[in-house]
Amino acid sequence: MGPYLLRRLVQSALILLGVSFITFVLLYVLPADPVRQIAGRSATAATVESIRRQLGLDQPFLVQYGRYLFGLIQGDLGRSYLQKTEVAALIASRLPATLLLMAGAIVCELVLGLAMGIAAALWRGRAADQVLMTTSFVTVSAPQFVVGLLLLYVFAVWLRWFPIGGYGTFAHLVLPALTLGILGSGWYARMMRSSMIDVLRADFIRTARAKGLGRGRVVLRHALPNAILPVIAMIGIDIGIFMGGIVVVESVFGWPGIGQLAWQAIQRVDIPIIMGVTLVSACAIVIGNLLADLIAPMIDPRIRLR
Amino acid sequence: MKRLLASTAIALALSLPAVAQEYQPDPAAKAGGTITVTYKDDVATLDPAIGYDWQNWSMIKSLFDGLMDYVPGTTELRPGLAESYEISDDGQTFTFKLRTGVKFHNGREMTAEDVKYSLDRVTLPATQSPGAGFFGSIKGFDQMMDGSATTLAGVTVVDPTTVKIELSRPDATFLHVMALNFASVVPKEAVDAANGDFGKQPVGTGAFKLAEWTLGQKLVFEKNADYWRAGVPYLDGVVFEVGQEPIVALLRLQNGEVDVPGDGIPPAKFVEVMGDPAQAARVVEGGQLHTGYITLNVTLPPLDKPEVRKAINMAINKERITQIINGRAVPATQPLPPSMPGYTEGYAGIPYDVEGAKKLLADAGLADGFETELYVMNTDPNPRIAQAIQQDLAAIGVKASIQSLAQANVIEAGGAGTAPMVWSGGMAWIADFPDPSNFYGPILGCAGAGEGGWNWSKYCNEALDAKATEADSITDASKMADRMKLWSDVYMGVMEDAPWVPVFNEQRYTMKSERMGGADALYVDPVSIPINYDYVYVK
User: Fold this and answer.
1) CATH of the domain spanning A89-299
2) Is the peptide bond before B381 cis (omega within 30 degrees of 0)?
3) How many angstroms separate the CA of residue A54 from the nearest CA in chain B?
4) Which of A32, A84, A269 sits opposite B45 (nearest CB)?
5) Which B positions 293-322 lie with beta carbon below 8 A of chain A?
6) Residue B468's closest CA among B92, B169, B154, B123?
7) For chain A, what are the domain ranges?
8) Predicted complex ipTM
């Protein structure tokens, strides 16, 4: 376990280094000059050059990247070009909203996905199963901005059950969490269905039924805890999928998380913010995957970490 | 982009205008109440030296004051923190007498030292102010820029209530410059305490103070009870909720949850809102000092030929383009908007004439037309406008491919001079202050034609530049008509060379809730967009 963890941590650090490098390259070759955004439309050439020099953007690429890394190692994500605020402070102020949204999304996808998967497994081969599996296929494929706008229109504008975007109360959380969660629920439904079918075929289920236990009790108390284990390990991987989705979902719902921060920064070529959010997201993905791998053997002793 | 000074009707806009001393407040106005204003994007900064977009401009106006100010709802200058001022005979020395007893939000009294500190700060390269260039006429500005000085030689503290500002050249627009947000007076100790982030912890002398800022969610402005102007503000506070889509803001306004949607009426809902008398009654319309234009890059063949540029001017159906934006604009004939002083009355512009355009092209040896590129910002309605332009050009045989890009990329291509044509929508020029000079230098003059400048036509006519300089050297108030005549000549000269197709001048529409009170002019205030927070009230 110890050497394994160490190796994984080193790997993670290398992945983050790679992410930072690729993002930095992409932002470097971007055909938009951040200095122009800062200097504004009335700036003279001298002002533009002065700002470029102060930010070190007149330096060769490797020097710029080296400086960024040097800061990063000391925990310094730099300051926003346009807001002049510390990027770490900006991200810290918005991270709780994103984490809340992700927690909400996980609950949504688990509840929806597991319910659909269990139902499909119990009614295997019947019409209900087919309907549920088709639904799961649609939810996996649907673009998030479409789902988001659809939910917003139906439940907020039309039915007025939920507020139209914003942040603050539980009601504000429902629609964005659902939008984000619906995507994953399809995966969970499929995973849960096959896992459940496997377990329902197992000897101990037959034994339980033979003992005279009711069908409901067997499913909930005996089959579910066993079937759910492989599914749980997926949550770690989900965090990565969510990170891609939050930019869209947070923008659609006006959710004040890091996705919205990134979106606004991209429009204004505010490179330190874009770098910061990308790295934080990459960290979340790496940690999520690591946790998924670490949890797997705990819930299934057949898996060994090497 | 930034939307600044705009105006419904500028009665008398001279470059050194007769200064209005008093504003007659609304007799029905009463104090109290807190209003809610929404925006989609978070506020980037409230630092007056940094903020330069149409969202934070009016907020900063309400938190800070400069030596000069505008009469609410107009573009008429009035003294702000200066009680009075004197201008020397050569027009190059301004002596401002400050009001006494004006307190910053931190309780300290404002003095002449603060004025000097603030001007030094905005021109210091380390501040990275996008507005530094406006102060170019102050003596010692060049030394600030090249780093050989850390204080403006031309700004002198005579005594605690007197500041003398010497210019290195006559500048007819100087009082307007002193009314820009960039010239706001800030307290040094608060800037230092903010440790590089004054924009999130602003301290000024303004009518409101920042009480709360939850990043990405909301800002709360609270009435400054010690405000030096008696009787205002009327509101107890303003809550700015950010992260709200314009369409959501409109729905919430209809539900009575929002008082002013800061991003305006979403284009998709405009016809619906204006078609409903109850809603239309709460929409205030006004003009603004804005022109939407197509730049024609005079360095790239075949656009280097004036007759080709004229042919393109004749090919564009401006009426149809204004219809695309639901008639929220008037067709333009020249670079200056109609309400700007120096506008040439009676000039009809280059007429819409497809046959004439074809003939001009044929004369230029391009009877079969040519291929070109039109750069456009990728947000609605700009791509639709670009398509209309594309069709108009196709009618005279010019095949324009549309490059629809993010704003920053269009600005880059325009500045680099690689874009043959740029539709300015979404980045269009709106005056920083109501003076014709502000429409020339950066976007039509030689100064802006360099690499990266905002003169995307790369047009540089030195004779016109000289005339512009001559106009701005006229500081004698009695010769203002001469000055405006010169400016009119400059813009007519521009039309002669046709580096632009002036397309339309946008109108402004502000929607407000039932309970909002105050003159309409305050809701289309040329300086405070969307509204003048200091003077509106709750009925």
Assistant:
1) 1.10.3720.10
2) yes
3) 7
4) A84
5) none
6) B169
7) 2-73, 89-299
8) 0.82
